[in-house]
Design goal:
By secondary structure, the chain is an alpha/beta fold. It has a domain of 226 residues: Rossmann fold (3-Layer(aba) Sandwich), CATH 3.40.50.300. It is 27% helix and 11% strand. α3 crosses α4. It is globular, with a radius of gyration of 21 Å. Bound molecules: adenosine-5'-triphosphate (ATP) and magnesium ion. The site of magnesium ion has 5 residues, from α4. Magnesium ion binds next to α4.
């Protein structure tokens, strides 16, 4: 690991300047353009190429002249699997206590911040042919930097977009906290689905009463979780949840990248990653280490979580005025 240094946040923005997104401001603080080295890691593995030339495609049998024959069947598009887990109500009081966005309440500075970020992420997700762009990993180097806070707020903000379904996946297998923050019951989840191929992933996805918002709990931990996450089953499960569903976004809340393996494992299965950084606490060296660990993801953006908050998470007033 490299030596850790604190980063000094730059002074406030000039008067009258348009509010910059938390992604843009993270770039200001850490001196990285979001399209710079974080977006395109130099150490990406070379894409795998076939060893031998593939066999030429089979020629379809010719119909006799004048006979158009039966019409070719349309290409088979697999329909999206319906998310079919239990229905549960999110505790609005709990959301408020946790400093999370309460959907029915007036627009706050906090909601506005996450709206700007969600637009940026959705633009990438919708513009890409690759379904992986619709899977977004939320990570940070260390504990307590605001991963769950940002992942949950982002999920709530995104779910408010018409026609978008968001599945917030609690991939923090070490210290899961998504269901508790939403005040909903946990249950079988990601780890159970990975361990047992007989469980259909969609049956574990909780349908919340916030329109468009779904939660896949972390599930029951075992000593083989890292092994399961590293297995081919992870890709199959995530494909099943995203296949044929261009309007479905998966957001993964993960444990700290420098402390546990899930984020690095999942980086292989997502098209976008958000590295949450605290301007006053995250060092550039820790960030670089985390970036290396996530380098299987082709698009890593920094997200500035610069609010001053108490460890109990009870002080949220400063969020909209996050230091620039
Ligand atoms: N911008 C913010 N404004 C107010 N409170 C915040 C903010 N970011 C995080 N918090 C609060 O700080 C505490 C730590 O945040 P959170 O749990 O999201 O961090 P984490 O990175 O997920 O931690 P862990 O690595 O332990 O999972 C929580 O109580 C959370 O509500
Ligand atoms: Mg967390």
């Amino acid at each position: 690991m490299t030596e850790h240094r604190r980063i000094t946040p730059p002074s406030g923005e000039p008067e009258g300047r348009k509010r910059r997104s938390l992604i843009e401001r993270a770039g200001d603080v850490f001196g990285t353009d979001r399209l710079g080295p974080f977006a395109v890691p130099r150490d990406l593995p070379e894409p795998r190429r076939p060893v031998a030339d593939p066999a030429p495609p089979e020629q379809p049998a010719r119909a006799p002249a004048g006979d158009l024959g039966p019409a070719a069947p349309p290409p088979r598009v697999e329909p999206a699997v319906a998310l079919a887990g239990p229905r549960q109500s999110v505790d609005r009081e709990r959301l408020r206590d946790e400093g999370l966005i309460v959907p029915e309440e007036p627009v706050t500075g906090q909601l506005e911040e996450f709206r700007i970020v969600k637009r940026e992420l959705l633009a990438e997700a919708r513009g890409a042919d690759d379904p992986l762009a619709r899977r977004i990993l939320v990570c940070s180097p260390h504990p307590g930097e605001g991963k769950t806070y940002c992942a949950a707020n982002l999920a709530i903000a995104m779910a408010a977009t018409r026609d978008i379904e968001v599945v917030l996946v609690d991939a923090d297998t070490v210290k899961p906290s998504v269901t508790q923050r939403f005040g909903i019951e946990g249950g079988p989840g990601l780890l159970d689905v990975l361990a047992d191929p007989a469980i259909r992933p969609e049956s574990c996805v909780i349908r919340t009463d916030i329109e468009g918002l779904f939660v896949l709990p972390s599930g029951s931990a075992t000593s083989r979780d890292s092994e399961y996450l590293a297995s081919a089953r992870t890709g199959e499960v995530l494909d099943r949840l995203t296949r044929g569903a261009p309007n479905r976004i998966l957001i993964f809340d993960t444990p700290p990248a420098l402390a546990a393996s899930p984020a690095a494992e999942l980086a292989r299965h997502v098209g976008q990653a958000l590295l949450v950084v605290r301007a006053d606490e995250t060092s550039r060296a820790a960030l670089e280490d985390a970036r290396q660990l996530l380098s299987a993801c082709p698009d890593i953006k920094l997200l500035l979580n610069a609010a001053r908050y108490s460890p109990s998470g009870r002080r949220f007033g400063d969020y909209g005025k996050a230091r620039d």
